[in-house]
Q: What sequence folds into this?
């Protein structure tokens, strides 16, 4: 995972600001406006320079989705595609990777099959994806952990995988142009945004850290009003610039709950989840009857 | 044997399939589960019959591509297949005629099986159905063989097709009667009540309501081809909405664009054209 992000980071074009504006910029000026920040885009715009889109520094983003994935469905996979399209369309971001992090068994949710299965199914589902991966770290921990801790972990992993680290906090004049620091954003459906309102489900400090330090990409879901949820919460309102609401044009309510019920009743779930996942489920006799495991 | 009491069913879906999506494929799965679940039917095959180019629908790309995409989509299905007969016809063909074509084909091959001989299609010559049916009925009266009934073709559709029966001039009254009277309809719908109301308000549909099976689709799976084409024009991802092979094929051949969406603009849809032509004569 680390190596891949490393390679992907190099692929993101982040030219020094000076070359974009056509003049020379001294290196200490450059360190004041790191190329990977959105400042450079805004500065270029303010200078009325017609910068072609791909020359502007886009902020690299990795999307992290936490959840049961019990089992993973085409709808989960769609979240990533829709979120990526949305962020690209803003012109400010370049999505360079996606992470699926299945929840720990100790979460204690009803009907949750063993993590090793949920991880294996996600891996099979992602075989044909060239940018999303499953990460079993969360599921391998001794106990269940809050989402913010998973975000912190993956963020530090991302930083560790950068091609260099020392220049980051020192801004040396002669350090090479740094690869942009990617942002890690939590990807979720609008239903998860709503759960922020549920008393005692999330710590307020965690909600704040999630939207302030990381950011949220929230995909539409029928029957939910994400704008309303944001307006109804002071914390979310304050950081609403860091909450991206993505529209899913194709209403696609493939809930894993329905999948489990259909499987329990011997009904077909073909075309709702990848074939490889269905084959795995049959092979391991998962979800064969209600209330298994 | 239990199975011989069940009626064998072949599901036939007609449509543009422009392009085929996971939702189309789901219709088959839902219909099969439902029909098999009644205990009275056994679904043995599903046929996708893409409409011919002569249909003249706006944005309809060449049947050649639509057929290939459907074949890619059903490549790893054990019971779904694509039939090109309709798409190869010069003129647009009414759905009732497509149903009849497939029913007769089933009767012919069922008869061949009864004769215990392999299907006799000598290269370069297809036996005419009329000949086959004559042979068949003669043989039946001569031999007292215990046979399984011939499989029945039924039209598989979404609620939009059912409700299109109400669009003036789109369907011939006699065709609707044939479809629900002689064959049968399996209609997958989210809005079961609306569909039931529609049936109630139509004398023809009401009369044959036992031949109209409404199947509830609990999952909102609104993957319409129109939305797929729109997403493609906007450079948006269609992954996980259509089978991977279909998505790759579309990308490789750059099938859908603003230009392709303008095809047949200003042209009257074939069934409406035909109705007008008939009214004039």
A:
């Amino acid at each position: 995972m680390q190596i891949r992000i490393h390679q992907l980071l190099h692929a993101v074009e982040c030219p020094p600001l000076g070359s974009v504006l056509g003049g020379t910029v001294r290196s200490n000026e450059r360190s004041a406006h790191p190329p990977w920040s959105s400042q450079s885009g805004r500065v270029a715009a303010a200078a009325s320079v017609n910068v072609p889109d791909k020359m502007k520094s886009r902020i690299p983003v990795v999307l992290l989705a936490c959840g049961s994935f019990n089992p993973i469905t085409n709808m989960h996979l769609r979240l990533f595609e829709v979120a990526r399209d949305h962020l690209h369309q803003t012109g400010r971001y370049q999505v360079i990777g996606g992470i699926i992090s299945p929840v720990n068994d100790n979460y204690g949710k009803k009907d949750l099959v063993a993590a090793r299965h949920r991880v294996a199914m996600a891996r099979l589902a992602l075989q044909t994806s060239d940018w999303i991966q499953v990460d079993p770290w969360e599921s391998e921990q001794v106990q269940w952990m809050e989402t913010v801790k998973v975000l912190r972990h993956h963020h530090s992993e991302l930083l560790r995988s950068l091609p260099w680290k020392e220049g980051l906090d020192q801004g040396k004049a002669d350090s090479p142009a740094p690869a942009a620091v990617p942002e890690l954003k939590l990807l979720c459906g609008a239903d998860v945004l709503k759960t922020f309102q549920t008393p005692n489900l999330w710590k307020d400090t965690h909600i704040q850290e999630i939207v302030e330090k990381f950011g949220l990409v929230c995909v539409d879901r029928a029957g939910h009003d994400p704008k309303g949820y944001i307006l109804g919460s002071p914390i979310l309102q304050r950081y609403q610039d860091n909450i991206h609401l993505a529209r899913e044009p194709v209403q696609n309510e493939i809930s894993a709950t329905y999948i489990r019920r259909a499987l329990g009743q011997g009904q077909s779930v073909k075309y709702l989840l990848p074939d490889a996942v269905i084959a795995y489920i049959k092979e391991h006799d998962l979800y064969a009857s209600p209330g298994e495991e | 044997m239990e199975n011989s009491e069940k009626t064998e069913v072949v599901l036939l879906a007609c449509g543009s399939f422009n392009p085929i999506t996971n939702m189309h494929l789901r219709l088959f799965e839902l219909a099969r589960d439902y029909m098999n679940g009644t205990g009275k039917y056994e679904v043995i095959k599903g046929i996708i019959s893409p409409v011919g180019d002569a249909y003249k629908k706006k944005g309809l790309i060449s049947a050649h591509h639509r057929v290939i995409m459907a074949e890619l989509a059903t490549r790893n299905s054990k019971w779904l297949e694509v039939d090109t007969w309709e798409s190869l016809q010069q003129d647009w063909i009414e759905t009732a005629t497509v149903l009849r074509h497939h029913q007769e084909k089933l009767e012919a091959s069922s008869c061949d099986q009864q004769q215990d001989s392999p299907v006799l299609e000598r290269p370069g010559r297809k036996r005419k159905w009329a000949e086959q049916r004559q042979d068949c009925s003669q043989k039946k009266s001569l031999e007292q063989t215990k046979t399984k009934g011939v499989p029945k073709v039924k039209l598989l559709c979404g609620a939009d097709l059912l409700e299109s029966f109400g669009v003036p001039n789109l369907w011939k009254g006699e065709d609707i009667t044939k479809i629900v009277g002689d064959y049968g309809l399996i209609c997958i719908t989210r809005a079961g009540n609306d569909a039931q109301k529609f049936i109630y308000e139509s004398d023809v549909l009401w009369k044959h309501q036992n031949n109209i099976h409404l199947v509830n689709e609990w999952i909102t799976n609104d993957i319409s081809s129109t939305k797929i084409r729109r997403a493609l024009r906007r450079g948006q991802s269609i992954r996980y909405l259509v089978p991977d092979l279909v998505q790759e094929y579309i990308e490789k051949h750059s099938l859908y664009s603003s230009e392709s969406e303008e095809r047949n603009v200003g042209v009257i849809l074939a069934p409406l054209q035909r109705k007008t032509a008939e009214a004039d004569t």
